[in-house]
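Morning, I've got a small favour to ask if you have a moment. I owe you a coffee for this, so here goes:
>
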Amino acid sequence: MKNYKFFFLLPALALGMMTFQACTDLEPEFTDSLLAEGASGTFAGNAGDLLVTAYNDLGAFTDQANIYSLTAHTSDEMIPPTRGTDWGDNGVWRTLHAHTWDASHAFVTNSWNQLNSRVFRCNQVLASTSPAPTAQQAAEAKFLRAFYMYHVMDFWGKVPFRNVGEGVDVNPRVLSRAEAFDFVEQDLLDAMPNLPAGGPGGDATKASKAAANALLARLYLNKGVYLASNPAGPYTFDNADMDKVIAACDAVIAAGYTLDTDYFNIFKTTGVSEKIFTHNGNGGNPENRLRMTLHYDQNPSGWNGFATLADFYAKFENGDQRKGKDGLKNGTEFEGVGYGFLVGQQYKDDGSQVINSRTGLPLAFTPNVPLLGAGTADGIRVIKYHKGNYGNYIFFRLGDVMTMKAEAQLRKGDAAGAKATVDALRAARGAGDIGTLDLNKMYEERGREMYWEGVRRTDQIRFGTWSSTWSDKSVTDPTRVLFPIPQQALDSNPNLRQNDGY
């Protein structure tokens, strides 16, 4: 059994703690730590100390629940099977996969609270007076605010916003998706001049021009979605916006990042050539990505949770590094757990077979896995951050940037340029020429490069596959492109309106 602690944000922006045990029991404990703010428009806090906290708050993205679960479990790349009574948790995981969540879903509520509290934390940095932020600290805070607000806008299509100086009796105003888009864009543009350049020699755990450009690229790439009159589409991607994506990506590439010819080295401490923006490990680290999928008889002992879908695995060709490799260290020393997709017989560090302690049989992962009633060895497991040598958790990296650039090139009609970009990436990954490139192939290539890194939901929406069906997901309701506003937030802020379909 695993215990979780989550920040819980009241719409009045009171910060409390919620204890979440075994993914089922919710016991909120509220404090008024933010209710003591002054109402002057400034904040008597130390900007440097608050900025450190704002960075540490990125740890929320490394948990397997909440924010990450909304990006991955709702998509076609991951399934959270219930195995006997394991991972049943009153259906909290299954409803995400099946697209049957509602406004009371714990992970939806927790994510809303976590992200909005972090936006407010960045506001505190900018309003601090003891001492006030330096120009670079203010720029870093604006980048982080843009990063957090981007996710609120992406998940819910609207953003409640409160200035530090507003009293708790003032209901937060609500930014529309278009207003939030403009806010995020302006924060990034304002921050850019006072941020360090970035590059593989820089500190990837801190905001940089390269990180800001990577976020701008993602923002502009999805502009057709975010500014659509109907959140469910149809979407129009203007050439001018695609030019902005390409320019932002080129600015990142110009900072000196290079593709790693060993794909899984990217996720190790030794891999630095592609990392643009990462989390430093304070407040959360990538170990959750390891344990959430491994079987409890493997080393390290996992929680025997999540798997990929057989149809998703089938999109990978043999020879593509991204499909995975055996657990060999430096080509000779065996490490037991492999990299990428773990399918078939599993082994210990000494090379002997792992035995499933519940069945007494050799542990062999099978491709097919049902959402309900799964066996302990059903489902292909996925490892990117490997035991013992995983590096910082990655938010932006060069492979992400190159696939964004290629997509933008393709959408504006430059198929030859897009193919060249994709083929350069595939060459580094040990894969062959992509051949004739169209949007469907681009979508699949993006999935191969970025699987289990928290972007699949947004990609599926942009490419128009979100409302299709896949294994154990038959719901095609287009309103599911947005999550519901938590009922607790609606009850306390009359300026909020529920999203369609809830």
